[in-house]
């Protein structure tokens, strides 16, 4: 799993979203380290944190749990966590789990 900041955290204005592109697999192996990285991003995020899922090739229950945990922590900080461009396999999992209704999506 790779995390790439596509908007500079220090340079983004408060009205601009912080965007993070995830790539690879969101699973039992990658989630622990990814959780730490994304919580670090939350500490310096603008009011909108967008996770670009266009390069995520696989997601399991650990990946969904990570998204739920990150959303909870974001809300506690007054940050909206939104998703964008999930691949069909991830979209299907979000839809089947009912989480599709829990996250705002950015086009």
Automatic annotation (TrEMBL):
GO MF assignments: anti-sigma factor antagonist activity
Entry-linked Pfam families: STAS_2
CDD domains: STAS_anti-anti-sigma_factors (cd07043)
STAS domain ranges (all copies): 20-107
Matching Gene3D superfamilies: STAS domain
Annotated family: Belongs to the anti-sigma-factor antagonist family.
Highest taxon, organism lineage: Bacteria
Protein name in UniProt: Anti-sigma factor antagonist
């Amino acid at each position: 799993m790779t995390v790439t900041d596509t908007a500079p955290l220090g340079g983004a204005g408060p009205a601009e979203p912080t965007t993070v592109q995830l790539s690879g697999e969101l699973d039992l192996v990658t989630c622990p380290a990814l959780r730490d990285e994304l919580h670090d991003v939350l500490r310096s995020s603008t009011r909108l944190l967008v996770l670009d899922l266009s390069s995520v090739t696989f997601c399991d229950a650990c990946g969904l749990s990570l998204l739920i945990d990150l959303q909870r922590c974001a809300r506690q900080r007054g940050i909206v966590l939104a998703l964008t461009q999930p691949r069909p396999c991830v979209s299907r999992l979000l839809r089947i789990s009912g989480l599709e209704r829990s996250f705002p999506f950015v086009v």
